[in-house]
């Protein structure tokens, strides 16, 4: 009997040791551009049987968020486990150079023995886009099937059917012709329950109905991936995550810091073999906050891999699970051809948005949506014809500097309560929290993108914008309150702004000029100070923002001379892009000739082509649009 117990103990230890060394397979299924419009989230018009079943067997997260409402910025956060404004990857799109010290979870998984595949979208918004050491395979054919026998896998499959581009009329016709979608929408467009920010017009109803057809198609693709696991007898050894890369996808959702742009569906499935890693029962829900910055740390933890200290999120599953956060933070910056700078924070009930450049209306920020979806065009046409109500018109009007929404009472975020007396305490709490977070993560958003090359790069003290922002040279504690003051644009701060444009710190000079732009005061003293500032300013983007302010200070023709010269002589793609924006937002583009726009299109740049790629690329959208409208001009504000 004693010998039997010894043998039994030996085998028990051996089994436990083997289990501790064994690693689970992990499958991430990502879709694009959807808010939680699934049956398992209570959306009554949904037809998503595969995801509903996965939720019934797994964990459904009710407060899951993308930290950014657009793919590239959200995905760089997912890749690194770091906030994009920390690494300098917050503008969309960009090719920001990252130092080797910035983590990327696939590298760590590969070092731990995982076979890592990505099928196939990357969109990492940084130099990691071309880093071949991230994946064993990354292509449309990448699959875990090609791993070695017994090797654990981590696989990402990205389902594109719900991407905003797929709602284009020609794409819908193609899906119908291939039998992927019904000839008529499954949901009668007249039965669609429209959000209050959309006018009730046929084109918008049809797009909403077809959007739900695409979600059903996406669900079918999810089912195929899950069935493949079963067919290969991998289901009981594979942890599955399903999530969308951000919210969406019709106008006023994707790209915008409303709840509909940031909240995502997220379901995690743990087979019985690995259920000891979580404290949930199948079919349960989790109401605590989870955001993309948390995913890499959690992934590495449940895979029993080392977690880099630089990662900024929290582990939300597994034996190393951390305390739930009290807040989630969000960011939005340049979206393609239009510069912007917004930050947001939520405590689950209230949602605060700080707009640092509020003069730019949301609905005029990019033309891409108008080229691929009829709902964008119909929405704008309704507003232009005076048929939109006050709520629907907000999208095309300048933003409030600070917005506060009660998400429980106002899930669509259509009525800001920031000015209401009962909001004073909550407004102060969330504003203080947002400031604290921005300073803690050393938010690079305060630095205008066209200034990056003046601060960092070859031959300079700092090689990357990340390294600069982590140094004492970046005085964010001093800069942040000045940026907020500039956004308010109060005339009583005129002398402060005039002092700021004389500061030794170029970032402070920038925000001083923006504050003067916001004042928009016809004042000869301001004109003189701005001209003096422009003449001695060594930083191109600071000359541009000062000239933009000059135009609204009563010297429009002189401002145009400066803006035209700076834009024409730009040798950096992002300076060029900013110059085109400045011409339009100063309304001095009315002085441009058709030949000016043609000459702009022929412009070349001297700085690193990889860095400037998107500056020139997105500038083309503005130039092509201007020429298509000629002799009319694009209304941008």
From TrEMBL:
UniProt entry keywords in alphabetical sequence: Hydrolase
UniProt-listed InterPro entries: Alkaline_phosphatase_core_sf, Sulfatase, Sulfatase_N
A GO term, aspect molecular function: arylsulfatase activity
Domain of life: Bacteria
Residue intervals of the Sulfatase N-terminal domain: 24-304
Cross-referenced Gene3D superfamilies: Alkaline Phosphatase, subunit A
CDD domains registered for this protein in UniProt: SGSH
Assigned protein family: Belongs to the sulfatase family.
Name of this protein: Arylsulfatase A
Organism the protein comes from: Lutibacter agarilyticus
